[in-house]
Specification:
By secondary structure, the protein is of the alpha/beta class. It contains six helices and ten strands, in the order βββαββαβαααβαβββ. It starts with 6 loop residues before the first strand and ends with a strand.
Length: 223
């Protein structure tokens, strides 16, 4: 019997409206993502990569089509249940890190879990995750006191604080130098080997060796 995909995307469309101009971003995209996949989404600028990631990461809703996450149809869910699913099962990593400038590395990592557990419970978990990504000695550093690669590692630790089954990463190496980018990619490989499903956007051909599957988008369609 074939495995049920952890994420199933069926014929989703998304159009943005800029003044009186319609900008189609996704045109009937269908794709299944299996548990423990390391999937890279690639394509030219404007092809719909980030829009697709936002739909399947439950940060946005498609205009048409259907998305299933862990057997749950999520397209039509109200925002409350969607937020709970996202908090429990999804870790999302942004290109620009999205750290809170006034919080330390440890506090940034703790933040998503404080919605579910006390600081006393969350603090040791966050500390362990920062040690895992090589930042055990920089728990009290503010984002401005960290390099770009270190900030991205804080963002990865934050995405892991609720032990998500799926990690979404939107061009996580775009602002990093070669060495820092390799460190981040090796970390994703380790997380994938530990059982996390990883879905990552990348422009770089040399990064595709980390994936077991590659999806290419062009003008809002899979090619």
């Amino acid at each position: 019997m074939p495995r049920q995909p952890i994420i199933s995307v069926q014929k989703i469309t998304k159009t943005y409206h800029l003044s009186d101009v319609r900008v189609p971003a996704l045109r009937g995209v269908t794709v299944d993502i299996q548990e423990k996949d390391f999937l890279i989404i690639t394509g030219r600028n404007g092809s719909g990569k980030s829009t697709l990631l936002r739909q399947i990461g439950l940060l946005d809703r498609p205009d048409e089509g259907r998305i299933t996450l862990l057997g749950n149809e999520v397209t039509s869910l109200k925002e409350g249940p969607r937020s709970r699913l996202r908090l429990k099962h999804i870790g999302y990593i942004f290109q620009e890190y999205a750290l809170i400038a006034e919080l330390t590395a440890l506090e940034n990592v703790m933040l998503p879990a404080l919605m579910r557990e006390s600081g006393k419970v969350v603090r040791p978990k966050a500390k362990t995750l920062l040690e895992k990504v090589g930042l055990g000695k920089k728990l009290k550093n503010l984002p401005r006191q960290l390099s770009g690669g270190e900030q991205q590692k804080v963002a990865i630790a934050r995405a892991l604080i609720n032990y998500p089954q799926v990690i979404f990463a939107d061009e996580p190496t775009a602002n990093l130098d070669t060495v820092a980018a390799k460190d981040v990619l090796e970390l994703f490989r380790q997380l994938n080997n530990e059982g996390h499903t990883v879905v990552m956007i990348s422009h770089e051909p040399e990064e595709q060796k980390y994936a077991n599957r590659i999806v290419t988008l062009s003008d809002g369609k899979i090619v």
